[in-house]
Amino acid sequence: MKINNKNISVIGLGKLGSCFAACFAYRGFNVLGLDINQKIINDINNHKAPFLEPNFDELIKKSKNKLKATTNPKEIFDFSDIFFVIVPTPSKKDGSFSNEYIKRAIKPLVEELKNNKKFKIFTITSTVSPISIQKEIIPFIEKNSSKKLNKDFTVIYNRTFIAIGDIIKGILEPDLVLIGENNKTAGDIIENIWKKVCINKPYIARMSIVSAEITKIAINSYITTKISFANMLGNICERIPGAEIDKITSAMGADKRIGKYYLKYGPAYGGTCFPRDNRAFSHFAKTKAKIDALIPISAHKINEFQTKFQKEKILKIIKENKINSLSILGLAYKIKTYVIEESASIKLIDELLKNKNLKITAYDPINLAIEETRKVFGNKLNYAKNLNEATQNKLIILMLPYEEFKKVKKLKNKIVIDLWRM
Ligand SMILES: NC(=O)c1ccc[n+]([C@@H]2O[C@H](COP(=O)([O-])OP(=O)(O)OC[C@H]3O[C@@H](n4cnc5c(N)ncnc54)[C@H](O)[C@@H]3O)[C@@H](O)[C@H]2O)c1
Fold first, then answer.
1. Dihedral (C-alpha) 125, 229, 362, 412: value to the nearest 10 degrees?
2. Which domains does the chain have, with CATH numbers?
3. Dist CA 386 CA 351 (whole Å)
4. What is the number of the ligand 1 atom nearest to the C-alpha of 105?
5. Of 380, 329, 374, nearest to 351 (Cα)?
6. How does pLDDT run across 55-101, given as a tens digit for each residue?
7. How far is the CA of 146 from the centre of ligand 1 (A)?
8. What is the residue with the minimal CA distance to atom 26 of ligand 1?
9. pTM over 0.70
């Protein structure tokens, strides 16, 4: 197998893919990215970050000689032997992930493979349901290229654990790099790429493809369990006079067997990964192993309950104080991002709007998060332009732990509910 390991292609230059492409280029690889979105292509070719992420703009400028983007798959095929595929894998109704975008994105490359003798490595970085690479993606490539796995091409499942709002750091300094493989040489190539990309020395876990597919969703599912445990405990403590949730979770987290991360009482978890990985894990266990994954199922139920619990608390305050308006500060699913997918604030607003008389003012320090929220709720909400406008109501709910929200707690004659107890 002869592979050019200096040139890398990234298929799908979205929130994640564009950062991967920039990081690979920054760490010395020649990178060509592919997307169907012309604006993203133009941004990258003009050395502009197509998405908002800390340090992204700076990095893309630094790597401008090594990074280019195109909409032409043929250019990609000719340019490199290693394709990182990072396109969407939307959740289906049953909780599993759809592979349709992956298949559509790789199809032109697979068709090129048909008439070509070069060995290619398809590195799937999108989240997939366990067993789908073996059952769906490899057969798709074999069928459409008339070529054979490990003779003409191979497929790797490769994941790093990255959080939106911290993507660049997550790529350059991950705790863990997961490599699912059934071809040792290709696994070595991908491992060596990561050794060059990372500025730290992460744990590189190599295993079978199905093990890696399971590991990815098991990790996120486990984290949701921790969050939901803290939230369940917090709700209980709220009803027990004298019970101090933060002292309890700090003590628990000091025990190394538990660890302090994701153990803080707060709003429901959300975002692009946790909720859907949790549901995908339950679906996978039920359909492929005929086992009810009771822990993820409960974590999910607790998460749904969390919004309702907080809504009841807010409605009680509204009733007691005879008010009909409130402010929600922090709309995205976490700080430093505009992404509102499955965000606790969006769910809470949705619940609160069932109360027709309530007037809600929404605000987020990231303007794009406000614009995303406007797309969901339109004129059902008031949108504040700044913190001053956002804090005119008597009742203020702090949904995200932004530093600048701390001063809201000092305002006179306000009722401030800080769900993170900053
Ligand atoms: N690696 C990680 O740790 C990690 C973390 C979060 C999410 N993910 C996964 O990564 C994947 C991508 O997530 P995202 O947030 O970047 O999505 P995104 O929607 O921001 O970006 C996807 C990109 O793919 C492009 N695309 C779609 N079809 C294409 C095609 N046929 N050819 C070329 N490009 C195409 C889109 O135009 C878009 O720019 C998802 O599966 C997500 O679950 C991975």
1. -140
2. 7-207 (3.40.50.720), 219-306 (3.40.50.720)
3. 24
4. 31
5. 380
6. 999 999 999 999 999 999 999 999 999 999 999 999 999 999 999 99
7. 27
8. 12
9. yes
